[in-house]
Fold:
Amino acid sequence: MYNDKVMDHFANPRNVGEIAGANGIGEVGNAKCGDIMKIYLQVEDNIIKDIKFKTFGCGAAIATSSMVTEMCKGKTLEEALEISNQAVAEALGGLPPVKMHCSNLAADALHEAIKDYMQKNGK
Ligand code: FES
Structure:
């Protein structure tokens, strides 16, 4: 039920792991299924220099997490804040309708991590 692009990001997720000394961390849970996603950011000069994620979730959650890390690397915080759940799902070529809620985790966790960085740095 997943397309090839989703399967690729699920089987070979990009940017998995943690960043020691991350300066922005976001964690969100999915109320519908109980899955959890955590994103670590390394921000320098308002640019996302590095990003890693850990997720306890389904294939769609892993694929969207992987995709969102690729989409925001090298972007400014403002640009990264504009990446929507919908945009992530579209970049993956679409998700099965029953899996759309899974795509919420990735962009939401990214946005939380950016807000965490901004709060810590008085922005
Ligand atoms: Fe929980 Fe997909 S079923 S994130």
In short: Helices lie at 4-11, 59-72, 77-81, 85-91, 103-120. The pocket of FE2/S2 (inorganic) cluster is lined by residues 30, 33, 35, 57-58, 60-61, 102, 105 (CB under 6 Å).
